[in-house]
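Run log, item B.
One chain of 163 residues. Sequence copied directly from the ordering sheet:
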Amino acid sequence: MENQLPEYFQDFMPENVCFGCGIHNPNGLQIKSYWEGEEAVCKWVSEEKYHGWPNLLNGGILATLIDCHCMGSAMAHAYKLEGRPLDSMPEYRYATGTLNVRYLKPTPNDQTIELRARVSEVKNRKTVFYCEVFVNGLKTAEADVVAIRVYDSSQPPAENAFK
């Protein structure tokens, strides 16, 4: 049996031009997130231009990875809770309510960075995540992230903040 590629959340976010997760931003980070059991996983390989110190990832880029991974995961989790595929309607989009990153160790800029996020709470339009960042099994950062649903295509335009 052939290995099948995961279903990447960002592939189901139409018109997304975000620097971190937008598939329509050729100059962005182009992250890809997918389910692995109950965890949303993202594996990303940096480039030298994203360093902070030599051979270390810039902290702002790391925060962007966490942020965008969790926003896409919030969308995918909402669809999962409703028992529907990522390409179904209504379409949802999320924006960051809070992002609290704890940098535990320097994150190398020349190895695969793995993000693992788990939902810890869902209440109305809010989804809360705990996200961990690993490089070769070593945890370099963790974050608490609140995602807020800001767009629901089934609602009138006045109810949608970003459309």
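Observations after the first pass:
- Residues 55 and 109 are 5 Å apart (CA to CA).
- The chain has a mean pLDDT of 95.
Flagged for discussion on Thursday.
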